[in-house]
Specification:
Layout: E1 8-18, E2 32-38, E3 41-44, E4 54-55, E5 59-63, E6 68-75, E7 83-91, H1 92-96, E8 103-112, E9 119-129, H2 132-146, H3 156-159, H4 169-186, H5 194-213, H6 219-231, H7 240-246, H8 248-269, H9 274-280, H10 283-304, H11 355-366, E10 373-377, H12 384-397, E11 401-406, H13 420-431, H14 433-443, H15 447-450, H16 455-467, E12 476-481, H17 489-501, E13 510-516, H18 520-527, E14 535-537, H19 542-556, H20 561-565, H21 570-579, H22 584-595, H23 604-612, H24 620-635, H25 641-656, H26 663-670, H27 673-683, E15 690-691, E16 701-702, H28 705-711, H29 714-717, H30 728-742, H31 763-770, H32 773-787, H33 793-805, H34 807-815, H35 820-834, H36 838-860, H37 864-872, H38 878-883, E17 892-895, E18 904-909, E19 915-920, E20 926-931, E21 935-940, E22 951-952, E23 958-963, E24 969-974, E25 978-983, E26 989-995, E27 1001-1006, E28 1012-1017, E29 1021-1026, E30 1037-1038, E31 1044-1049, E32 1055-1060, E33 1064-1069, E34 1080-1081, E35 1087-1092, E36 1098-1103, E37 1107-1112, E38 1123-1124, E39 1130-1135, E40 1141-1146, E41 1151-1155, E42 1161-1166, ...
Parallel strand pairs: 10-13, 10-14, 11-12, 12-13
Antiparallel strand pairs: 1-4, 1-5, 1-9, 2-3, 2-6, 6-7, 7-8, 8-9, 15-16, 17-76, 18-45, 19-20, 20-21, 21-22, 23-24, 24-25, 25-26, 27-28, 28-29, 29-30, 31-32, 32-33, 33-34, 35-36, 36-37, 37-38, 39-40, 40-41, 41-42, 43-44, 44-45, 46-47, 47-48, 48-49, 50-51, 51-52, 52-53, 54-55, 55-56, 56-57, ...
Helix pairs in contact: 2-9, 4-5, 4-6, 5-8, 5-11, 6-10, 8-10, 13-14, 13-16, 14-16, 17-18, 19-21, 19-22, 22-23, 22-24, 25-27, 26-27, 26-32, 30-32, 30-33, 32-35, 34-35, 34-36, 35-36, 36-37
C-alpha cells in the first residue's frame, strides 16, 4: 500500500514561551509575535498583548513526516526592524513521535538569540485529518499490536512452534543472548571471529533492552529472534570449538549477520509510537526484510550441517525505502577522488592488542547516542592509524563502512582536504543506493559542482544534502585517519571548522572516527565547538600499551631463527618493549629492522644488539629519534663521506619530490647508471623505514611521517640531516632532462583533428601509454624545483632550450592532464618572475597569453595547439613566430590578424538576448549572468563554459543579478516586478518570487552579511527584504521622483545608495529605512549606476550625461571633479577590490578604467562588443573585468592592459549596429543605415566606401531606400525625421521631412518613383510625394509600425506592426483595404509583396513566416516555422521562387516560396542578430546586415543544386577534399576525403563542417566578426578576417602540419 504523506494535516496552537523574564531580561518583550514556517509555508500569529508571551492562534499546515518546523519569536519594533528573540527548529516526525495520540502537547528548548537564557516553547500539535487509507492502516496496525499473540506467524519455522508467542518476550530474547555470550567466549582466541562475536552480543543486548522497554511483542521480530537462536544451537555441542574451526567462514558470517539483524531489530523497536512506525516503514516491507534475514540464517544453519554451500555475503539493510537501480544513469567519476586513501587491511592492529580502545570505539559506533564524531588522540607512532584501520576493516566486513580516508603528509598532493568529502561521497554512493540517488539528483548536469574543490560546498552538497532524508538502519561508519597530516594550520582550518561544528547536522546513525596528533589548533577547534565529542588519548594508559607492544614484539620476532639459536629469550625481547617509549611505530620499525628483508642479509641478532645498546630515551619523540639514528648508523658508515653523500643525495630525492616516485621512476628520472645504482643501494636496506623500498614500481616514501620529520630537522637527525632545498637543482635538471628525452609531437597519437579528445574511446589507455610516471611528474613539477634555484647558468640554458624546442609538446601533455591548463598557466607566471633575461621573460609572457586565450581549446582537442593557436596568435607573438617555422602547413590569416595580444581574453556566448547584468562569484571561480531572454546562467570563469542549465522562472527580462556573500545564492530582479533568489549550485529557486513593487525591478543587491536583499524599481521605490523569509523589512523606501535604476549596500551594511532617473543619488539608513543624507545633486541626466568604494568612503555614479562622479559618502559632496568618461551614456561603474581603480561601461560600446584619485584614464578603451555595455565588474583579485552587453555576450578583459592605439586609417565600416540595407536599382551600390546615426554608400563589387558617411540624423537611422532612378536616397531615423540625399553628391536634398511624432522605423519609395511611404513608432503610416508633402496619414495600428512595402504596381502599400497585425492600404486614398490581417502571435517586423504582386509575406517575433493572398487578405500556405527566435527581415527572390529570412539567431535561411521547405543549410557567419536580408537584382546573391556591424554578401546561386552536383563541383578525382576558402586558394595537399559541404556551422568559436559536423578550426573572439565564410563573396566591416587553406593539413592528415 502506498502512503500519501501530503495528506497529513496538522494544526498548531496554544503557543506559549516560558523563561523570557529573568535577571538579565527584567521585562517581558513588548508586542511579541511568532512566525511558523513549515516547508516554506510561512504563517504569523497576531501580536500578543503587552505583558504576555502567548497566543491562542490556530495555524493549519499540510505536512510530511520529514517536514521541518521553524518557529521564530519576534518583538515588534514599529518603524524599526523587528527583533528576533528566539528560534526553534524541529522535525515534524520527531515532534509526533513524542506521544501515541493525535493531539500532542510539546515543550521544547527555544534558542535565545539575545542573552542565551534557557527558554522553552509550549504548543499543541493536532493531526486533524488523514486520507482514509492511512486511517484504516493505523487502526489495523494498532489492532495487530494489541492482538499479536493471536496471529500465527507466516514463517514455517514459527508455525511449527505455536507456543512460542505465549512465552514472555524476555524468555525468547534471553535464550538467544545466552547462546551468543557462550559463543563469544568460545571464540575468544580466534581473531577472525571474536571481534564480531563480541559486537554481536553487544548490539543484541542493546536491541533487547529497547524491545523490552517499548513492550515490543511483534510476532515477526520474535520469530526472527527464535530463528537466530536456532542458528547458535551448535554452542551446546560436545566440541563446539571443533565445529567452529572447521566452519570458520560460515561462523564468521553468522556473527556478522547477527550484528546486522540486531541493528534492524533495535532501530525498528526504538520508535516510541507504533502508528509512527507504520507510516515510516510499511508492514509489507518489514515482513519482506524479516523473511530475507530468516532465509539467510537458514542457509547458514544448512552450511554448518554440511548440507549447502553458503554465499560469501551477509544480507544488509541500509535503506528503508526501495530504490530502483540507477547505476547506468549515474556517473560520479569526475568528482575528485583520492585514489589509495582507503584503509589497508595489512595495517590493522596486531591480534589481541588495543582491544580495550577498539571495543570502546565499537560500542560508541553501535550505541544509540547522538554523538556522531569520536576523536582518537595520540603522539606520532602511538598506533592511532592501526586502530583506525582496524575499525575500518571490522565495519567494512559487516557492510557498515561508509568510507575510510587516510591523510598522508608525503602524499598531500593527492590526499588533501579539497577531496576528502568528495571521496567520502563517492564511497557512500557505492554503499547505499538511496544515497546515490539523492546525490545524483543534486549533482547531475552540474559538472562544476561535481568538480568543486570547496570543502564546505562538498560537505553541504555531497554529504549533508543527500543524507538529509536518508532513512537507514544501523550505523554508517566513516574513518578519517591522520587529520594532523591534512596540511598546515591554514590549510586545514576550514576542515576543522566543519568537523567541529557541522558534523552534528548529519543523521544520527552516522559515526565518524577521527585520529590525530595532539596539535594545538585541532584541539582548540574541538574544544571551542558548542558540541560534545567523545575522545580518547592513547598516551594515557601506559601499562596497557606496554602489554600490547609486548604481544606484538613477541609475535613479530617469534619466527626469527637466530634469536632462539642465541637464546635471546623473551627477557631480551622485553628490552625492545621498554625502549619503545609506548610507541607502536618504534616497535614496528625495530622489528622490521631485526628481521631485515631480501636485500639485507645481516644477522638478526646483530640487528637486535644494534638497537638495544643505545639505552632508553626519556621521551616518546626522543625514543623514535634515537631508534632512527641507531638504525641509520648501523646501515650506513657515517665516517665514509662518499656513503653519506650518496645517502643524502638519494634520501634528498625521496623527500624532495612533490609526489612519491618509485625506484624505477627515480632511476629513469636521472638516466644515469651511477645514480641508478646509488638509488638502489640506499633505498633497498631501508625496508623498515620506507614504503616501496623492496619493489621497483611502488612509490617510495617514509612509512611514517615521523621519519620524514626526523630527517628534515637538523637538531634531531645530526649527520643524517637532509636539506631538501639542496635537491631542487638536481630535480629541476632531471625533470627538464626527462622532458627533453620523452616529450614529442602528437604524444597521444591523435589520428584526426576532427574530434574532441573526449570522443576518443581509448583515450585513457593512450594517456597511460604515452605519459610515464616520471614524465608526468616532470611536466607538472619542474617549475617548483626551478623556482627554488636562482642564477644557475646551466639551469638557465636548459630552461631556454625547453622553451624554444618543447614548449608545445609540454602543452600537449598538460592539455589532457587533470588541471593541466591551470598548471601550465601557473608555471609560466612563475617562470616569468624567475627569469632575469629580458627576451626570455617576454617569450614566457607571450606563452602565458597563448595559454590564457587558447588553453580551453587545448584541453578539448590537443591537435589545435598547432592548427589553431599558432596561426591565429597575433602577428607579433614571439611564440607563434618562433614555432610557425616548424609547422608551416597550417591555415594562414591573409587579413584580419592582430599585431599584439588584446586585453580581451574570453567570450561567454549562449544568451539569446541582451546580457543585462553579469557578476563574479566571491571566489572568482564562477560567473552568473542575467539576460533579457528571461534566464540566468552560471559559467566557469576560466573556460567560459556553461556549468548549469539556464535558471528559468521569471516572466520578464532579467535586469540585475547579485551574489550572496557566501557565494551560495544569487538574487535576480526582473521586468516581471519580482525578485527571486536561486541556489547557484542546484539552480533551484530557494526564495520568491518576492512581490511588492508595482513596476519593473531594475537592481538588486545583497547586504554584506547576506541577511537582506535590497531592490530598486521603476515604481520609484526601494524595498528591503529579509533574505531568509522573503518578507519586507520596512515599508517601501520613498523619496526618488524617478525610476530607481541602481542600488548598492555599503561595505559595512549600514547604508544603501541608490541612483535614479531623477538625476540624483541618495543614501539610506539600512537599519531604519530612512534617508541618511540629502540627495546628491549634480548629474544632468538619468543616473544609471552607483557603487560603493571598498572602504565605504566614496560612492561612484554613472549617468546618461556621459560623466562619472565620485562622491564623499559621508556628506554627498563631490570628492573630485566629474570624469568626462565616454561618448555616450554611462551604464555601469565598478570599483576595483583595492579601491584605486574604477571601471565604466557605456552606450558607446567601450569599457574604460580610471584612476580614482586623479580621474585619469589608465586603461582602455576596451573595444570588442557590438552592443551597448550594460554591466561591468572587477574579478575578486582585481586582475580581470567582466562585461555584459547588448550583443548577447559577456567578455573577460585583462584589467591592467593599456590598449594600443592603432594609427588612423580610412573609413571601413559602421561603428554600431546596421539596421537596414538596400541595393541600388542598377545593383552597383549598397546603402546602409546604422545606429551610429549615419547612412553609408558602398561599392557592391569591392565593398569600399563610395563616399563619406552621410550625417545629419540625430538618432539611430532605422531604414534607407533608393529611388527607382537611383539618384536619391531616403532615410528614416528615431529622431522622427526623414532625410533625402543626392546620390551623386551625398548632400541633403531637403532638410528634416516631418510628419511623424515618433521614431521612423521604415521608409520605402514606390516603384513608379512618385511616392514615399514611412512607418513610425507613432503608430501611423504616412504617404508623401517626392517633395515631402504629406498626402495622407493612417492611424489604424495600435502599436509601432515596423515595416512598410509597396506592391509592384505602386497601387498598394502593406504595413506590419508590433500589434501583431498586417494592413494593406490604397496608395491613392489611404483606405484600409482588408482591415487587420491576423495570424501572428508576435510583433510583425517585416512585410513584402511578391514580384508579381499576388502574395504578401510577413516575418514575426513568433519565428514564423506567413503568406497572404494580396487580393483577398486570406492566409494561404505555406506556414513556415523559420527560426527559433524573432525574424528581423523577409524578402522574395526576384523570380518569386524563394524566400529569404534573417533572425535574431544570427542566421539567414532560404525557403521554397511554394512548399515552405528549406532550400539549404542556414547561412552562418554573423555573430549577432541579422536585421535585414535582401536579394541582389539578379537573384544570385543575398545581402545581409547585422548588429555585429557587418554587411555580408552571400553566393546562393548553387544552394538549390542537388548534392551530387555540389560534390562534383567541389571534389577532386582522387576523392580528397579541400576546405573552401574565401581567398579562392587551391589546396595542393591531398587530404582524406570528407563529405563535401559549402557551409560552416559555428559552435562556441569552433568552426564545423555543417554536414559532417567535424571540427575544422577554432576562431578567437577578435577574428569572428569579419570572417569570410565559404559562401561570402564580400564582407563589409571595420575588421575582416580572410583565411587561406591552401596549406592547411587537417583531419587524418593533420600531422603533416609539421615541416
Amino acid at each position: 500500500m502506498s502512503v500519501d504523506y501530503k495528506s497529513l494535516e496538522c494544526t498548531i496552537g496554544d503557543i506559549q514561551v516560558v523563561g523570557l523574564q529573568g535577571e538579565t531580561r527584567p521585562a517581558r518583550p513588548c508586542k511579541p509575535y511568532a512566525t511558523l514556517n513549515i516547508d516554506g509555508n510561512l504563517k504569523r500569529t497576531k501580536v500578543a498583548p503587552r505583558g504576555t508571551v502567548s497566543w491562542d492562534d490556530a495555524l493549519s499546515f499540510f505536512v510530511q513526516l520529514e517536514s521541518l518546523l521553524e518557529v521564530r519569536i519576534y518583538e515588534h519594533r514599529g518603524a524599526g526592524r523587528d527583533l528576533c528573540i528566539g528560534i526553534l527548529k524541529e522535525g515534524i516526525g520527531d515532534i509526533l513521535s513524542r506521544a501515541n495520540a493525535r493531539v500532542v502537547s510539546v515543550q521544547l528548548p527555544l534558542r535565545d538569540t539575545i542573552v542565551n537564557l534557557p527558554l522553552h516553547i509550549k504548543f499543541t500539535i493536532t493531526i486533524s485529518s488523514f486520507s482514509q487509507p492511512i486511517v484504516s492502516q493505523i487502526h489495523d496496525a494498532e489492532e495487530k499490536a494489541l492482538n499479536m499473540q493471536m496471529i500465527p506467524h507466516p514463517l514455517e519455522s514459527v508455525q511449527s512452534r505455536v507456543g512460542v508467542l505465549d512465552q514472555p518476550v524476555s524468555n525468547v530474547w534471553q535464550v538467544l543472548l545466552r547462546k551468543v555470550k557462550v559463543f563469544a567466549k568460545i571464540v575468544d582466541g580466534i581473531s577472525e571471529i571474536h571481534p564480531y562475536a563480541k559486537m554481536a552480543w553487544s548490539v543484541l543486548s542493546a536491541a533487547y533492552q529497547i524491545a523490552v522497554t517499548q513492550g515490543n511483542r511483534d510476532q515477526n521480530v520474535l520469530g526472527l529472534v527464535e530463528i537466530m537462536s536456532d542458528a547458535y544451537t551448535f554452542v551446546h555441542d560436545a566440541d563446539p570449538l571443533k565445529k567452529i574451526e572447521s566452519h570458520s567462514q560460515v561462523i564468521c558470517m553468522l556473527s556478522q549477520q547477527t550484528i546486522e539483524c540486531a541493528y534492524f531489530i533495535r532501530d525498528y523497536a526504538k520508535k516510541k509510537s507504533f502508528w509512527m512506525r507504520t507510516v515510516k516503514y510499511m508492514l509489507s516491507d518489514v515482513d519482506a526484510r524479516i523473511q530475507q534475514y530468516s532465509d539467510k540464517f537458514k542457509s547458514l544453519m544448512s552450511a554448518l550441517q554440511g548440507l549447502a554451500v553458503v554465499h560469501t555475503e551477509i544480507s544488509v539493510l541500509r535503506a528503508l525505502d526501495g530504490v530502483k537501480d540507477i547505476a547506468a544513469e549515474v556517473d560520479l567519476n569526475d568528482m575528485p577522488y583520492a585514489d589509495g586513501a582507503r584503509y589497508h587491511p595489512e595495517k590493522i592492529c596486531f591480534p589481541g592488542t588495543r582491544e580495550q580502545i577498539i571495543e570502546q570505539i565499537c560500542d560508541w559506533a553501535n550505541n544509540d547516542s547522538n554523538t556522531r564524531l569520536f576523536l582518537l588522540i595520540g603522539a606520532a607512532g602511538s598506533g592511532k592509524s592501526a586502530i583506525a584501520h582496524t575499525i575500518a576493516r571490522r565495519f567494512d566486513a559487516i557492510g557498515r563502512l561508509g568510507s575510510s580516508y587516510c591523510f598522508d603528509r608525503s602524499r598531500q598532493y593527492a590526499r588533501r582536504p579539497e577531496n576528502l568529502f568528495s571521496t567520502i561521497a563517492r564511497d557512500l554512493a557505492d554503499l547505499n543506493p538511496q544515497y546515490k540517488r539523492s546525490l545524483w539528483q543534486i549533482v547531475k548536469d552540474r559538472r562544476s559542482l561535481r568538480t568543486t574543490t570547496s570543502i564546505r560546498e562538498q560537505f553541504e552538497k555531497f554529504i549533508l544534502a543527500p543524507t538529509s532524508d536518508l532513512a537507514s538502519v544501523g550505523p554508517v561508519v566513516i574513518v578519517i585517519d591522520a587529520l594532523d597530516e591534512s596540511g598546515d594550520e591554514a590549510a586545514r582550518a576550514p576542515l576543522l571548522s566543519l568537523l567541529a561544528n557541522e558534523i552534528p547536522k548529519l543523521p544520527p546513525h552516522f559515526r565518524i572516527l577521527v585520529t590525530t596528533r595532539h596539535e594545538e589548533d585541532i584541539m582548540l577547534a574541538f574544544e571551542r565547538s558548542r558540541h560534545f565529542f567523545p575522545h580518547i588519548s592513547i598516551d594515557v594508559d601506559a601499562k596497557s600499551t606496554a602489554n600490547d607492544i609486548s604481544k606484538f614484539v613477541t609475535a613479530q620476532l617469534a619466527d626469527v631463527w637466530s634469536i632462539e639459536r642465541h637464546r635471546l629469550n623473551k627477557q631480551r625481547c622485553q628490552l625492545l618493549v621498554d625502549n619503545s617509549g609506548g610507541l607502536f611505530q618504534w616497535a614496528s620499525t625495530a622489528c622490521q629492522f631485526v628481521k631485515g628483508n631480501r636485500e639485507n642479509n645481516r644477522d638478526p641478532s646483530e640487528q637486535l644488539n644494534a638497537i638495544l645498546h643505545a639505552g632508553s630515551p626519556t621521551t616518546s619523540s626522543g625514543s623514535l629519534d634515537r631508534l632512527y639514528h641507531d638504525l641509520l648508523s648501523h646501515l650506513f658508515n657515517t665516517r665514509d663521506q662518499s656513503c653519506m653523500t650518496r645517502f643524502r643525495s638519494v634520501m634528498g630525492l625521496v623527500l624532495a619530490v612533490r609526489e612519491p616516485l618509485s625506484v624505477s621512476a627515480l632511476r629513469t628520472l636521472y638516466r644515469d647508471p651511477q645514480a641508478a645504482e646509488a638509488i638502489g643501494s640506499i633505498v633497498r636496506p631501508l625496508g623498515s623505514l620506507l614504503e616501496g623500498a623492496a619493489e621497483d614500481l611502488i612509490p617510495v616514501h617514509p612509512l611514517h611521517v615521523s621519519f620524514r620529520d626526523f630527517l628534515t630537522d637538523r637538531t634531531r637527525s645530526g649527520e643524517f640531516f637532509i636539506d631538501i632545498n639542496l635537491q631542487n637543482r638536481r630535480l629541476a635538471l632531471a625533470s627538464l632532462n626527462v622532458m627533453k628525452m620523452d616529450l614529442r609531437f602528437n604524444i597521444y597519437d591523435f589520428k584526426t583533428s576532427y574530434v574532441f579528445a573526449k570522443e576518443i574511446p581509448d583515450l585513457r589507455h593512450r594517456i597511460k601509454k604515452a605519459v610515464s610516471a616520471q614524465l608526468s611528474y616532470a611536466c607538472r613539477f619542474w617549475i617548483d624545483h626551478v623556482w627554488s634555484t636562482m642564477g644557475d647558468t646551466r639551469l638557465v640554458g636548459e630552461v631556454e632550450d625547453f622553451l624554444y624546442n618543447r614548449l608545445l609538446f609540454w602543452l600537449e601533455v598538460l592539455a589532457l592532464t587533470k588541471d593541466g591548463i591551470t598548471v601550465a598557466s601557473r608555471a609560466l607566471l612563475s617562470l616569468h618572475d624567475w627569469s632575469n633575461n629580458g627576451y626570455t621573460r617576454a617569450f614566457v609572457k607571450d606563452a602565458s597569453e597563448l595559454v590564457a586565450v587558447f588553453g580551453g581549446i587545448f584541453a578539448q582537442s590537443p591537435p589545435h595547439i598547432y592548427l589553431t593557436a599558432l596561426p591565429f596568435a597575433p602577428t607579433q607573438s614571439k611564440v607563434a613566430r618562433h614555432y610557425l617555422k616548424s609547422y608551416p602547413r597550417t591555415l594562414s590569416v591573409l587579413a584580419g590578424g592582430i599585431p599584439y595580444w588584446p586585453s580581451l581574453q574570453l567570450a561567454f556566448e549562449g544568451h539569446r538576448h541582451f546580457v543585462s547584468s553579469a557578476i563574479f562569484s566571491p571566489d572568482g571561480r564562477r560567473v552568473v549572468s542575467g539576460s533579457r531572454d528571461k534566464t540566468l546562467r552560471v559559467w566557469d570563469a576560466e573556460s567560459g563554459e556553461v556549468i548549469l542549465r539556464p535558471l528559468e522562472g521569471h516572466d520578464g527580462w532579467i535586469t540585475s543579478v547579485a551574489f550572496s556573500p557566501n557565494g551560495k545564492q544569487v538574487a535576480s530582479g526582473s521586468y516581471d516586478k519580482t525578485i527571486r533568489v536561486w541556489n547557484v549550485e542546484s539552480g533551484e529557486m530557494v526564495l520568491g518570487p518576492l512581490r511588492g513593487h508595482f513596476s519593473r525591478v531594475n537592481s538588486v543587491a545583497f547586504s554584506p552579511d547576506g541577511t537582506m536583499v535590497v531592490s530598486g524599481s521603476g515604481d520609484k521605490t526601494l524595498y528591503l527584504w529579509d533574505a531568509t523569509s522573503g518578507e519586507p523589512i520596512f515599508r517601501p523606501l520613498e523619496g526618488h521622483t524617478g525610476e530607481v535604476r541602481s542600488v548598492a549596500f555599503s561595505p559595512d551594511g549600514k547604508h544603501i545608495t541608490s541612483g535614479s532617473t531623477d538625476c540624483t543619488v541618495r543614501v539610506w539608513d539600512a537599519g531604519s529605512g530612512q534617508a541618511a543624507l540629502a540627495p546628491f545633486v549634480g548629474h544632468t541626466n538619468h543616473v544609471n549606476t552607483v557603487a560603493y568604494s571598498p572602504d565605504g568612503r566614496q560612492i561612484a555614479s554613472g549617468s546618461y550625461d556621459r560623466t562619472i562622479r565620485i562622491w564623499d559618502a559621508t556628506n554627498g559632496m563631490l570628492a573630485s571633479p566629474p570624469i568626462r568618461a565616454h561618448n555616450d551614456g554611462v551604464n555601469s561603474v565598478a570599483f576595483s577590490p583595492d579601491g584605486k581603480r574604477l571601471a565604466s561601461g557605456s552606450l558607446d560600446r567601450t569599457i574604460m578604467i580610471w584612476e580614482v584619485e586623479t580621474g585619469c584614464c589608465i586603461s582602455g578603451p576596451f573595444e570588442g562588443h557590438f552592443g551597448d555595455i550594460l554591466s561591468v565588474v572587477f574579478s575578486p583579485d582585481g586582475k580581470r573585468i567582466l562585461s555584459g552587453s547588448g550583443d548577447r555576450t559577456m567578455r573577460m578583459w585583462k584589467a591592467k592592459m593599456k590598449e594600443r592605439r592603432i594609427a588612423s586609417r580610412p573609413f571601413s565600416g559602421h561603428s554600431d549596429a546596421i539596421r537596414h540595407i538596400t541595393i541600388s536599382p542598377d545593383g552597383q551600390h549598397v546603402a546602409s543605415a546604422s545606429c551610429d546615426r549615419t547612412v553609408c554608400i558602398w561599392d557592391a563589387k569591392t565593398g569600399n566606401a563610395a563616399m563619406t558617411p552621410l550625417t545629419g540624423h540625430k538618432d539611430d537611422v532605422e531604414s534607407v531606400s533608393f529611388a527607382p532612378n537611383g539618384k536619391r536616397i531616403c532615410s528614416g531615423s528615431l529622431d522622427e525625421t526623414l532625410l533625402m540625399w543626392n546620390m551623386n553628391t551625398g548632400t541633403e536634398v531637403s532638410l528634416g521631412i516631418g510628419g511623424h511624432s515618433g521614431g521612423v522605423r521604415s521608409v520605402a519609395f514606390s516603384p513608379d518613383g512618385r511616392n514615399i511611404a514611412s512607418g513610425s513608432a507613432d503608430r501611423t503610416v504616412c504617404m508623401r510625394d517626392m517633395t515631402g508633402v504629406v498626402l495622407w496619414r493612417s492611424l489604424a495600428h495600435r502599436l509601432t509600425i515596423k515595416s512598410v512595402a509597396f506592391s509592384p504596381d505602386s497601387a498598394y502599400v502593406v504595413s506590419g506592426s508590433s500589434d501583431k497585425t498586417i494592413r494593406v492600404w490604397k496608395v491613392g486614398s489611404g483606405e484600409d483595404v482588408f482591415g487587420p490581417l491576423r495570424g501572428h502571435v508576435g510583433s510583425v517586423n517585416s512585410v513584402a509583396f511578391s514580384p508579381e504582386g499576388s502574395r504578401i509575406i510577413s516575418g514575426s517575433d513568433d519565428g514564423t513566416i506567413r503568406f497572404w493572398n494580396a487580393q483577398t487578405g486570406k492566409l494561404i500556405p505555406p506556414l513556415i516555422k523559420a527560426h527559433d527566435d524573432w525574424i528581423g527581415s523577409v524578402c522574395f527572390s526576384p523570380d518569386g521562387k524563394y524566400v529569404a529570412s534573417s533572425s535574431d539567431d544570427a542566421t539567414i535561411r532560404i525557403w521554397d516560396a511554394w512548399t515552405g521547405e528549406s532550400a539549404g543549410a542556414p547561412l552562418e557567419g554573423h555573430t549577432d542578430s541579422v536585421n535585414t536580408v535582401v536579394y541582389s537584382r539578379d537573384g544570385k546573391q543575398i545581402l545581409s546586415a547585422s548588429d555585429d556591424c557587418t554587411i555580408r554578401v552571400w553566393d546562393v546561386e548553387t544552394m538549390n543544386d542537388d548534392s551530387t552536383s555540389k560534390a562534383k563541383q567541389r571534389s577532386r578525382d582522387d576523392g580528397s577534399f579541400s576546405i573552401p576558402t574565401c581567398a579562392r586558394t587551391v589546396n595542393k595537399l591531398h587530404f582524406p576525403a570528407v563529405r563535401p559541404s559549402a557551409d560552416w556551422k559555428f559552435d562556441h568559436g569552433w568552426i564545423r563542417d555543417s554536414q559532417t559536423g567535424v571540427l575544422l578550426f577554432w576562431l578567437p573572439p577578435w577574428a569572428r566578426t569579419g570572417l569570410w565564410v565559404p559562401r561570402n563573396v564580400l564582407v563589409i566591416s571595420k575588421t575582416q578576417t580572410k583565411l587561406d587553406f591552401s596549406k592547411f593539413a587537417h583531419g587524418t592528415a593533420w600531422v603533416q602540419c609539421r615541416g
